[in-house]
Amino acid sequence: MVAILVAGLAAWVGCGPGPRRLRLRELALRSVAERRWRTWASGFVLRLGRLARPGRADRKAAAWRRACVELCQAIVAELAAGRASGEALVQAIAAVDPPDPVVLRPVAAVARDGGDIPSALAEAAHLPGAEGLRRLAMCWQVSVTVGAGLAGLVEGVATSLREAEAHRRDLAAQLAGPRATARLLAGLPVLGILMAVALGMRPFDFLLGHLGGIVCLVVGLSLDAAGIVWINRMVAAAERSASL
User: Fold this and answer.
1) Is the dihedral angle over the CA atoms 101, 103, 104, 105 positive or is it negative?
2) Where are the domains of the chain?
3) pTM of this prediction?
C-alpha cells in the first residue's frame, strides 16, 4: 500500500508542472492581485476627492435659489407694469433662466389657464434650492384668500431670499477653512505616494505586495475617509443650523 502511494506521488511530481511554470503562474497571480489592488486604491482615492469637493447637486441648488430671487423680482416688475397676477407670473417665468426650465412649465400653463397657482408653485418647490417657490405659493394663497396686495408680499419674499442668500455666502466664507482641510485630507494619500516615488522608493511594492503594506493602505485610507466624512458632516450641520 505504501509502495503504491509513493509511486503515485512520484508520478504526480514527475507529470506536474515544472518549477519555471510554477514560478510564472505565481508571478501572473501576483500581477493580477496587484492590478486589482491598484484599481481599488485609485477608485478609493477618486471617491475621497468627490467627498472633499462640492458636487453638482450643490451647484444646482444654488442656481435654483438665484432663479427664485429673479422670479420674484420679475413678478414684482410685471405687476408694477399693470399686468394681472396670472399674466405677470407667465411673463416672469419666461424672463428667468432656471437650471431646469421643465419644472416651471406646468406652473406657467396653470397660470395661463387660470388654475390653482399656489398648488402648482408648491408642487414645483420639491427640488433642493427651490424652497423660495413654496414661499411664493404662500404669498399667492394669502393674496387670493385675504385679498392682500400681491406685489408687496412678493417683494417681501424677494427681500428675505436675498438676505438668506447673503447670509449663506457669509457662512460659506467662514466654512472655507474646514472645506480646505477636507481637500487637503483627500490629497494626502496621493501626495505621500508621489513623495515616496520621487525619493526613489517603491511604495507600491510594499503597499500591494505584502500583508503589512495592504493593512497599512486599508487603515490609512479608511482613516482619511473618516476624517473627510466627519468634516463634511460638521459643515453640513452648521449650514442646517444657520438655515433654521
Assistant:
1) positive
2) 57-173, 175-244
3) 0.58
